């Protein structure tokens, strides 16, 4: 069964250390994609696309810098993509989802811990389900290397990026015969 990600009820959020003393959080405001499940609801595949220019850290100057060639280079590489390559059930609606993440035209493997919800029928008769995912990546693996070394030898911007994803998806409607 195919499920379409509902962009207005989905969030892709991240957290990075700043000055080695605090954490800056942000999100991407535009995400689309699909999930695949078996008829009994077991997750089998994930494909998602994130608009790089939709990054939002609540600081316009920082967001402009993150969109620049120093970081995401959103003008040249407007979309970040994830495509699952393996989905391992862990029981009770939990999965380890491995896949290929592409940032700045560089594709590397990542793994996500995923927890799904049981589908429900919304007030308008649509079948909907949810999922939460989390993981960590090193941004340097994707060529996102801009940084400054501070006086004490610490980095201005941390290399580890923690992320959480909350998805609401609607079952795709069958094509009219």
Seen as an oligomer or otherwise, the chain set is single chain
| Total DSSP helices | 1
Q: Report the order of strands and helices.
A: EEEEEEHEEEEEE
* Assigned CATH superfamily: Lipid/polyisoprenoid-binding, YceI-like
What's the rounded overall pLDDT mean?
A: 90
The coarse overall form would be: elongated
Strand order of the largest sheet: 1-4-5-7-8-9-11-12
* Domains (count): 1
| Strand count | 12
Please provide a written account of the structure.
This protein has 177 residues and is mainly β. The protein has one domain (2-169): Lipocalin (Beta Barrel). It is built from 1 helix and 12 strands, in the order E-E-E-E-E-E-H-E-E-E-E-E-E. The protein has one helix at 60-67, and strands at residues 2-5, 11-18, 22-28, 31-37, 43-51, 55-56, 79-91, 94-103, 106-116, 120-121, 127-138, 157-171. An 8-stranded antiparallel β-barrel has the order 1-4-5-7-8-9-11-12. A hairpin with a 3-residue loop joins strand 2 (11-18) and strand 3 (22-28). The longest helix has 8 residues, at 60-67. It is elongated. The chain starts with a strand and ends in a 6-residue tail after the last strand.
């Amino acid at each position: 069964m195919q499920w379409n990600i509902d962009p207005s009820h989905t969030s892709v959020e991240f957290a990075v250390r700043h000055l080695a003393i605090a954490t800056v959080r942000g999100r991407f405001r535009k995400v689309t994609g699909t999930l695949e499940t078996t008829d009994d609801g077991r997750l089998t595949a994930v494909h998602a696309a994130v608009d790089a220019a939709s990054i939002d850290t609540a600081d316009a100057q920082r967001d402009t810098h993150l969109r620049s060639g120093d970081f995401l280079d959103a003008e040249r590489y407007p979309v970040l993509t994830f495509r699952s390559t393996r989905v391992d059930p862990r029981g009770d609606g939990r999965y380890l989802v491995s896949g290929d993440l592409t940032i700045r035209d560089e594709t590397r493997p990542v793994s996500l811990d995923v927890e799904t919800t049981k589908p429900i029928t919304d007030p308008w008769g649509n079948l909907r389900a949810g999922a939460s995912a989390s993981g960590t990546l090193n941004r340097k693996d994707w060529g996102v290397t801009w940084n400054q070394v501070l006086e004490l030898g610490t980095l201005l911007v941390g290399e580890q990026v923690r992320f959480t994803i909350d998805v609401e998806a609607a079952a795709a409607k069958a094509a009219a015969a």
